[in-house]
Structure to design on (392 residues):
C-alpha cells in the first residue's frame, strides 16, 4: 500500500451503544483527517474508515471523493454507495460537483466528503464553499468524515504563502475545523512524500518536476508538517484540559509545560512579563498572563498600566486573563489548578494587593499552596534600572 494509512481512529465506534463500553465514547459526529500536504493519505484514511464502518452495519455513503487518478485510492471507492455528482456548465466547461440536495434527500447516517476547503462551482448549489455544505449535513443529523490540509486554515494560510511562495486560494475558517468532534492526523515524512511524488503517486508525471522544485521542497514540507503537528497537539491539549475539568481529576498531569505569570499594575511588571515569556519560550510552553483585580473600591485602579500590559501580552503571543477576586493567592493557584499550569512566575517585590489584611503575604501563600499541588514557582528578582550617567 503506497499511501500512508492513519491508525484505526474509529476504534471507539466498534463498542457501540451510548457512551460505549468501559467509558469509551463512540465516534463523534464530525471528524476531520488533517494533513500537512497533498499525498499524505487523508483520503485513503477516510475511505478505509468508511469500509470499517460499513462492515459494522453503518448506513454510509460517499458524498464526494476525489481520487486524482491514484489507483490505491480508486480501489477503496469500490464497494461504497456513491452519490452521483451533478454536472454544472460554467464558462464553457462541464464540471462535476457534489450534489448536496441528493445527500440530504438520501439522509445516510454517515457521509464521506473529501476536500473541506473546496470552492463550489457557481450555480452548483446554495453555498460558495464545501465547508458550508458540510454544515448543512451536520445540521440535518448526518455524521460527516472529511479531509483538509493545514495550509487551508484561515489563520495559517498567509504564513504558508509567505513560506512556500504559493497562493492559498481556498480557505476554511478556523472555527469550522475546531468544531470537529475528532481531528485525526494523516502523517508522512517529507522524504516519503517526495519519493511518492517522484514515483507519480500524487500528481501526474508531467507535474512532478515543478512540484518537487516548488511546493514540495523538503524545507516547505518540514514546515508544513510542523504546523500540522502543532495544531493537532494544541487541539489535544485543549481536549485534555476540558476532560480533566469535566471529570475533576485531582493532581497535575504534566503532558506539556504550561506557564503562567501573575502580574499587577505596579511598575516593573512589564519586565516580569518579558522574563516569563522567555521562560515559556525555552521550555516550548504557552504563556498565560493573569491579572487579579482585588474587589476593594478603596484601592486605586490604574487603567493605563494595565492596558499597556495587556498590549504587551498580545505582542508576546500570550493569553490575557483578568480575574476579580478578594483573595489573590487563591485566585492565582485556583487558575493554575484549573488550567493544569506546571510553572507559576511571580515577582519577588510585593506591591499593592500583594499584602492583604489577615491573609499574610500573597507570594508566600502562592508558594505554599502551589507546592502542595505539585506546581513549580519561579520567584523573579526585581532588577533596578542602571543609574543615569552623570553629565561630563
Amino acid at each position: 500500500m503506497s499511501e500512508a494509512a492513519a491508525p484505526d481512529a474509529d476504534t471507539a465506534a466498534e463498542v457501540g451503544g451510548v457512551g460505549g463500553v468501559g467509558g469509551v465514547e463512540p465516534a463523534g459526529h464530525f471528524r476531520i483527517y488533517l494533513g500537512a500536504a497533498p499525498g499524505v493519505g487523508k483520503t485513503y484514511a477516510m475511505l478505509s474508515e468508511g469500509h470499517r464502518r460499513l462492515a459494522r452495519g453503518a448506513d454510509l455513503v460517499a458524498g464526494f471523493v476525489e481520487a486524482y487518478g491514484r489507483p490505491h485510492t480508486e480501489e477503496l471507492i469500490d464497494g461504497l454507495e456513491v452519490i452521483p455528482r451533478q454536472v454544472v456548465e460554467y464558462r464553457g466547461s462541464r464540471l462535476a460537483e457534489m450534489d448536496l440536495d441528493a445527500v440530504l434527500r438520501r439522509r445516510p447516517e454517515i457521509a464521506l466528503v473529501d476536500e473541506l476547503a473546496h470552492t463550489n462551482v457557481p450555480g452548483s448549489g446554495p453555498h460558495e464553499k464545501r465547508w458550508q455544505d458540510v454544515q448543512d449535513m451536520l445540521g440535518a443529523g448526518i455524521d460527516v468524515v472529511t479531509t483538509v490540509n493545514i495550509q487551508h486554515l484561515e489563520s495559517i494560510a498567509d504564513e504558508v504563502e509567505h513560506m512556500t511562495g504559493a497562493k492559498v486560494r481556498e480557505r476554511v475558517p478556523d472555527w469550522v475545523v475546531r468544531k470537529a468532534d475528532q481531528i485525526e492526523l494523516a502523517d508522512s515524512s517529507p522524504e516519503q512524500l517526495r519519493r511518492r511524488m517522484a514515483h507519480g503517486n500524487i500528481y501526474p508525471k508531467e507535474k512532478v518536476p515543478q512540484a518537487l522544485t516548488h511546493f514540495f521542497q523538503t524545507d516547505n514540507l518540514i514546515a508544513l508538517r510542523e504546523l500540522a503537528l502543532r495544531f493537532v497537539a494544541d487541539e489535544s491539549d485543549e481536549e485534555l484540559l476540558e476532560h480533566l475539568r469535566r471529570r475533576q481529576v485531582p493532581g497535575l498531569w504534566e503532558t506539556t509545560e504550561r506557564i503562567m505569570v501573575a502580574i499587577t499594575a505596579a511598575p516593573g511588571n512589564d519586565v516580569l512579563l518579558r522574563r516569563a515569556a522567555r521562560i515559556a519560550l525555552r521550555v516550548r510552553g504557552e504563556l498565560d498572563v493573569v491579572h487579579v483585580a482585588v474587589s476593594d473600591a478603596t484601592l486605586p485602579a490604574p487603567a493605563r498600566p494595565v492596558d499597556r500590559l495587556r498590549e504587551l501580552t498580545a505582542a508576546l503571543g500570550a493569553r490575557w486573563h483578568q480575574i476579580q477576586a478578594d483573595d489573590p493567592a487563591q485566585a492565582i493557584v485556583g487558575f493554575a489548578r484549573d488550567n493544569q499550569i506546571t510553572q507559576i512566575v511571580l515577582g519577588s517585590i510585593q506591591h499593592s494587593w500583594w499584602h492583604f489584611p489577615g491573609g499574610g503575604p500573597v507570594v508566600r501563600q502562592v508558594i505554599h499552596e502551589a507546592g502542595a499541588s505539585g506546581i513549580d514557582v519561579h520567584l523573579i528578582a526585581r532588577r533596578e534600572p542602571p543609574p543615569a550617567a552623570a553629565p561630563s
User: Anything to note?
Assistant: Residues 1-9, 11-28, 350-360 have pLDDT under 50 and may be disordered. The CA atoms of residues 61 and 81 lie 5 Å apart.
